[in-house]
Amino acid sequence: MCEVDLTVFAAELANGAFVIDVPEPDEYRAGHVPGTHPAPPSALGAVVSALPGDRTVSVICASGSLGRRAAEHVEALGAGSVPVAGGTAAGARAGHSLDHGAAAAESA
């Protein structure tokens, strides 16, 4: 499975890409890419049915390894997906900003 690099990912995100972030809730609260949708591994199967069917979904995690496995799982369930190389940590090292705290659905 091919990965999308951070530069391409940042451009796609700015243009409205749909992105799921797959760390556990405590990792998501510690730092996530703004505009991502949390989908911890334990809930990934349920999230797939709500993904947009008309475009590829980017999948990101903290380091990249879980993102690759989650993207393969999403593909196996019938949705197009691509993992983000290096994950959130690589994005932070490259100077991309992160949000901290719970997702809107968690804080409601």
Descriptive labels:
about 110 residues, alpha/beta, Oxidized Rhodanese, domain 1, 4-stranded parallel sheet, 6 helices, 4 strands, globular
The major pleated sheet works out as: 4 strands, parallel
Mean pLDDT: 87
- Reading the helices and strands in chain order gives HEHEHEHEHH
Number of discrete helical segments: 6
| The CATH homologous superfamily | Rhodanese-like domain
Widest sheet: strand ordering: 2-1-3-4
Walk me through this protein's architecture.
- It is a single chain.
- The protein is α/β, with parallel strands linked by helices.
- It has one domain: Rhodanese-like domain (Oxidized Rhodanese, domain 1, 3-Layer(aba) Sandwich).
- The chain contains six helices and four strands.
- It has helices spanning 6-14, 25-30, 44-48, 65-76, 87-93, 104-107, and strands spanning 19-21, 37-38, 57-60, 81-83.
- Strands 2-1-3-4 form a four-stranded parallel β-sheet, with helices on one face.
- Strand 3 (57-60), helix 4 (65-76) and strand 4 form a beta-alpha-beta unit.
- The radius of gyration is 12 Å and the shape is globular.
- The mean pLDDT is 87.
